[in-house]
Amino acid sequence: MTRPTQTESRALSAGEKIQLTDPKGRMHTIVLAPGEVFHTHKGLIPHEDIIGRPEGIVVTNTGGVDFQVFRPLYEDFVLSMPRGAAVVYPKDAGLIVALGDVFPGATVVEAGVGSGALSIALLRAVGPHGRVHSFELREEFARIAGGNIADFFDGRPDNWDVTVGDLAETLGDTFDEHTVDRVVLDMLTPWTTLDAVGRALVPGGVVIAYVATVPQLSRFVEALRASGCYSEPQSMEAMVRGWHVDGLAVRPDHRMIAHTGFLVTARRMAPGETPLEKKRRPQGSPASADDVEAWTGPEVTEEAIGTRTATGKKLRRVMREAGRRLDRQFPTSKEDQ
Hints:
Homotetramer composed of a dimer of dimers. With 337 residues, the protein is α/β, with parallel strands linked by helices.
């Protein structure tokens, strides 16, 4: 899905993903191929009507319905790509890149590759001279992410690597001390990685966690404070609400993208330095032992926090679908599959 630069206008070609949008705003993502036809219940569009033409055109199907033709944006690609695990929504991926100050040329470590949505955003941010290294516990998720990333960049990026394993156990084998600029943790128990992350991060480097629930948020923030290696953590969430604008009829949409996850950021202190403590108002009576146990005792699992993950037959189908467009263009050997 390599995009042309602003100074060039590359014609749409066979093998590219495109997005067709009808007058009601419904989007359809297809892969252009000679001889193929896009079917709807209101008519057909031969792919030859699109191949060789610039994006931004309007094509009409055999039923007289018009469709706009564009290459998918990052958001369009992420929300339509095959997924085995829930993706990091574009609104959160954008904040992770911005709040984490992910810059061109940076070395970024990611824990929890999922379906590859955040990896794509990180790779675009670090550019060709940066590096992204992902750690993933489940091999099937690593394969799905690899297919989606290769699909987006028209091939597997040379500056992306993935390790199937626990970041807390393998990060030190992959990176020397103080050689990583940014660490992004999208995982169930990010607090278990802080020792390894602290050794890998450069002084001033940023760690940012994406967690789904309030108990995870609390435990990670308190673990950051207890470590004594990080600045006072900052916590937030983002909610996006669109607006309906039609002449003088201007109002907020009835639906919005509300809570998807919490973001927590902190910076690595220099070795031997103690972070400043935030002044806090005196609290009431301390929490009881039973309350603390109820908050921190239960094991954090995908089922406990309500995470939906594809399993069994569906997961195998997603693994086949991820990267299939490139397989059709550039068939791989059996060893690569």
